[in-house]
Design goal:
Layout: H1 5-14, H2 21-28, H3 50-54, H4 62-75, H5 80-89, H6 94-102, H7 104-114, H8 116-129, H9 134-143, H10 148-156, H11 158-172, H12 177-184, E1 190-191, E2 198-204, H13 209-225, E3 229-235, H14 244-255, H15 260-269, H16 276-285, H17 290-298, H18 303-315, E4 323-326, E5 329-330, H19 337-348
Parallel strand pairs: 2-3
Antiparallel strand pairs: 1-3, 2-4, 4-5
């Protein structure tokens, strides 16, 4: 079984919404396709209206629309049964829909019987971690859309699910004080006072579109909160992004000349153009000392700093970008400013 790249992204962001739902999907990779929202987030909130997502069609006659709504409440909106009822009900006479509403108890009983294996799996996993745990919440949400056959296959991978959910629980815990100080300290590029009540640390990759979104969130944070929040930039270039590591080194070379933030803006704005010649072009655009800049890249002066950030990230369970911590708490959706702002406001109280 191989790791799904979208699941790895979910683990780091979260998942949005709870991107960490992707951890469970690591175990489900062989059992079904992951649900993929816009931008690759596994649990991205759909922009479609509730009626479209639930299968309820506004043109259905009164009893049939009510039947679809009632039926989907019983089986769960994401389930295949709810999706299927949309097509079936569109050709049923109102009298049949009316009868279906009257006999909804029968549907409930039949559904519970058919889904028994899934129910038992959820109960078993939730007993492992507790009903209020995030692991239990993820299992409950993800299992709704799984078929009984999926659940049987998943039970065959029970040890793998437990291992991934255990990691989820570990990742979900706030970082201990020592680790918070580690990722927020040192000479990393940052803005905001060191004694700010709120410190946000983000591990980013210049070739990651999600990191670009997170960088925009950081810019908005600076505008809105000023010196109330300290933001720390950490590098975590994906080894599969061939230009990301050198781009990170280039940003540090620019930072040595006082232009880190301006240079990072250019990198995020031009993610498809990060070859060595492009990096030098951006340096000239910012009127950097090009000789010093080129020497820094030639001699890989900043390679160890980038590598140190990567190792630091691994120590705090970073597996993809963006991964952001707010006062040591993992942000489940670091690419959405409004959601991050809500967490900042809570922390400032």
């Amino acid at each position: 079984m191989t790791s799904n790249p979208y699941a790895l992204h979910s683990l780091s962001t979260g998942l949005s919404q709870f991107v960490l739902a992707g951890v469970l999907s690591l175990s489900l990779a062989g059992c079904g396709q992951m649900k993929k929202g816009a931008g690759g987030n596994t649990d991205e909130v759909s922009s479609k209206p509730e009626s479209a997502r639930s299968g309820v069609q506004t043109e259905l006659p009164g009893p049939c629309k009510k039947y679809v709504e009632t039926f989907c409440e019983v089986v769960g909106i994401p389930s295949m049964y709810c999706v299927s009822i949309k097509t079936i009900t569109s050709i049923l006479p109102p009298s049949v829909c009316h009868k279906g509403i009257e006999d909804i108890a029968y549907t409930k009983n039949r559904y519970a019987e058919k889904r028994k294996v899934c129910t038992e799996m959820v109960e078993k996993l939730c007993n492992e971690y507790g009903p209020e745990s995030r692991a239990c919440a993820v299992v409950r949400r993800e299992t709704v859309s799984r078929t009984p056959d999926d659940c049987r296959s998943m039970m065959k991978q029970y040890p793998e699910m437990v291992a991934n959910l255990t990691r989820l629980e570990e990742v979900s815990k706030p970082l201990i004080s020592k680790k918070q100080q580690m990722i927020a300290g040192g000479t990393a590029n940052s803005f905001g006072p060191e004694d700010a009540k709120v410190t946000m640390v983000s591990f980013l990759d210049f070739q990651s579109p999600y990191s670009s979104q997170a960088a925009e969130v950081a810019r908005q944070i600076k505008v809105k909160y000023g010196d109330k929040v300290r933001f720390v930039f950490r590098h975590f270039p994906d080894p599969f992004h061939q230009n990301a590591h050198q781009a990170a080194q280039a940003s540090l070379a620019a930072g040595a000349q006082g232009k880190f933030w301006q240079y990072q803006d250019l990198l995020f704005e031009n993610q498809e153009k990060l070859a060595r010649s492009d990096l030098e072009r951006y340096a000239r655009k910012l009127r950097l000392n090009i000789k010093a800049f080129k020497k820094a890249l030639d001699d890989e002066i900043y390679k160890e700093i980038v590598d140190a950030d990567i190792e630091m990230g691994k120590l705090v369970y970073v597996s993809g970008t963006p991964t952001s911590y707010l006062n040591g708490k993992l942000l489940t959706n670091p690419t959405h400013f409004n959601l991050v702002a809500q967490e900042i406001d809570k922390a400032l109280k």
